[in-house]
Amino acid sequence: MHLAHARDEEERRRLREFKEEEELKQAKRELEKIKGRKARADEEERIKKEIELRRLKEEDAATEERQRREKEANSAVEDYKRRELERVAKEKKLKDQKEKEAAEAVERYKQAEKDRIAKEKADREAKDREYQDRLKQDLAKSGLDDKTIEAILKKEKIKKAQPQHPQPLPHHAMAGPAHHYTPMPVPVNQIATIPPPPPAGQVARPTYTRMSRRHLSIESLREFGVEFDFDTDPDYLLIRRWVPEWEQDRLWKHTKLIREKRTKMLMVEEKRHGREEPDFEWVRKKDKDKHSRRRSKSPGLLMYLAGARPA
Hints:
Blueprint: H1 2-141, H2 146-153, E1 209-212, H3 218-223, E2 228-230, E3 236-239, H4 245-262, E4 265-268, E5 279-282, H5 298-306
Antiparallel strand pairs: 1-3, 2-3, 4-5
């Protein structure tokens, strides 16, 4: 009985130890589970923190990149605006300079035109005064009085003198040089205009025709036996009588013929390729229509003074 009780006690002790051991193992397993969950939670927390940190870093990097790009864009915009302002300022300066130069050129042109007009006016007035003085001298030489000369210069109408009966001249007095007109041959279909004789009782005054030497040669005058004198102006000649238009044309044509014969061939001396022989250059004859001459106004005035009527 005592042995059975001992065996039961031993059996209960073993069961108790086994149970305690199992509980201990269960507790250990629970503890291990708890530790595993905590470790996983810590790991998850760590991973979350790493992810959050990485995200923050990426956001910071993106923010920095965005700021850098915005800064570059703003800098590019500012640089573009600055270049545009410089370009506009440069263009405005260039435009202002061109406008200033154009205005200065216009002012210079206006001043040059004013100077030219003033110079031309002064030259024209000087030539007019010279012409008036020369005409006055010519009219005075022709025997007109000062009153008649002033009337002619002012282009006033001259009253014709009333015819008077000639008074007998003393035997020792002589009349002035009368103008004798010898009719020249007239071309076909052209009528020679002869100045009318002076009124009765008046002494005929000598008539002169003033012609330019530009279209008249002395050889032509000598060829046709026309008497002449040299004018105070070397560019003009004084014919000792009235010259009608047809005779002027004949003298001009003869002068042109003489001058064309002289200038038919010109010798040009040039040294070409080591040659010293003279070359010849032919001159083409000028067209008559392109180089027409205008008649001088002086013969008409002198014809008027001589008493000729307009055609």
